[in-house]
Design a protein that fits this description.
Helices cover 22% and strands 41% of the residues. The protein has 403 residues and is α+β, with helices and mostly antiparallel strands. A hairpin with a 6-residue loop joins strand 5 (145-164) and strand 6. Helix 1 runs antiparallel to helix 2. The two termini are 82 Å apart. The model is unreliable at 9-29, 53-59, 84-103, 140-147 and 246-252 (pLDDT under 50).
Length: 403
């Protein structure tokens, strides 16, 4: 038998005995009650074991398993005396008198223990409870005269079924129905008997092991036409030894852990392309073979080289052309300066006749400056009588310069 079930049996055994010692006296009526509870306790063990075997499916849901509880509230009791003797405390009245107690709202405290199972969508449990109810008053009436009031109270013991219908994972209305014993105290100590016990309540789960419950419970007994009726209203706290689990929630499908896909490699940073202008100079030199001494007239041999300049001008109409004329050292410097200019102008005239825009052609004579050969020989002087044509090509070529 599990620890929780043993605890339940001990609770069934200990509650009535403990309450009797708290009263200080074991009356004959209480001794009878002790025997009744003893028999009930033996039956309870069998019931617990049998239900455990029948419903041993390992289920643990809200409001199930072994539990202990404490409760407190008020007891609204009423005693009606219909016989000459109301009880052993000496509250004697005659047959032609009727005594009714006023409404009594004494303090009520109690304890309970039980074990509950899930049955379908409901909860069914076995519940044992003890309650101590504070004193009330009753008085004997003679006509319109009240002869006095006498205090009384009660003990109640109950064992029964607890039937609940959870409406959510945390809320369950329930009903109790069972058999118990009610024993009066004080002026009602002669009233003791067995009978049905019932109640209604609602329980709210505030934590996996803990719940709070509000409950109304009723028990009454009648002896020789004298009646003691208890209505108790309590608020209680229950502790479940097994953590409650929701029972209306479908089991979640197992989650299969999947390896996260490897992140795609970061793209390599795009190279920063910078474009630079490539400047190409295409010089054409018309050497001395194209000019006679002291002459600025082009001969036929210049056609081939100047044809290259014309072709370039057509492919690159935005390019400018620079024509520089030179001479040897024969003659005076001023004369050679003018002669070199005439030679440059002669080249420009040729290009214009071939369709090149004259505004694109720039000429300059340099005279005897910057000889390319020695003027001491005829061959050297012939080389120095020349014209140089320079044209610059500025193209945006796809030359990538990476950082």
């Amino acid at each position: 038998m599990t620890f929780q079930k043993k605890l339940l049996v001990l609770a069934l055994m200990g509650l009535p005995v403990g309450s009797a010692f708290a009263d200080g006296v074991l009356s004959s009526a209480e001794s009878d009650a002790k025997g009744v509870v003893k028999d009930v306790e033996t039956g309870a063990k069998d019931v617990v074991q049998g239900m455990d075997n029948m419903l041993d499916d390992g289920y643990s849901g809200p409001f199930t398993g072994a539990y202990l509880g404490l409760k407190t509230g008020i007891n609204d009791s009423k005693m009606q005396v219909g016989n000459a003797t109301a009880g052993t405390a000496g509250a004697a009245v005659t047959n032609n008198q009727q005594t009714n107690s006023p409404q009594n709202y004494g303090a009520a405290i109690g304890a309970e223990a039980g074990y509950a199972w899930k049955v379908g969508s409901t909860v069914l449990g076995l519940d044992a409870a003890y309650g101590y109810n504070g004193s009330g008053r009753f008085g004997s009436l003679s006509g319109n005269t009240t002869s006095g009031y006498n205090s009384y109270g009660s003990h109640d013991y109950a064992l029964g079924l607890k039937f609940g219908i959870p409406v959510s994972d945390v809320l369950m209305p329930y009903a109790k129905l069972g058999y118990g014993r009610l024993m009066g105290t004080g002026a009602a100590s002669g009233l003791a008997g067995n009978g049905l016990n019932g109640g209604l309540g609602v329980e709210y789960l505030v934590a996996p092991h803990w719940s709070v419950a509000g409950e109304w419970n009723n028990m009454s007994t009648t002896v020789n036409s004298n009646t003691l009726n208890n209505n108790t209203y309590t608020i209680g706290v229950n502790y479940y030894f097994s953590a409650a689990k929701p029972h209306h929630v479908a089991a979640a499908a197992p989650v299969v852990a999947q390896a996260a896909p490897e992140p795609a490699p970061a793209p390599a940073p795009a190279p920063v392309d910078r474009w630079r202008v490539i400047t190409e100079e295409k010089p054409v030199s018309l050497d001395g073979a194209n000019f006679k001494t002291n002459s600025a007239v082009l001969n036929k041999m210049a056609d081939e080289k100047l044809g290259q300049v014309v072709d370039f001008s057509k492919r690159y109409p935005e390019a400018d052309i620079q024509v520089d004329g030179y001479t040897d050292n024969v003659g005076s410097k001023p004369y050679n300066q003018k002669l070199s200019q005439r030679r440059a102008d002669a080249v420009k005239s040729y290009l214009v006749k071939k369709g090149v825009d004259g505004s694109r052609i720039h000429t300059k004579g340099h005279g005897m400056e910057d000889p390319i050969a020695s003027n001491k020989t005829a061959e050297g002087r012939a080389q120095n009588r020349h014209v140089e044509v320079h044209y610059t090509v500025r193209e945006e070529k796809k030359v990538r310069v990476q950082n």
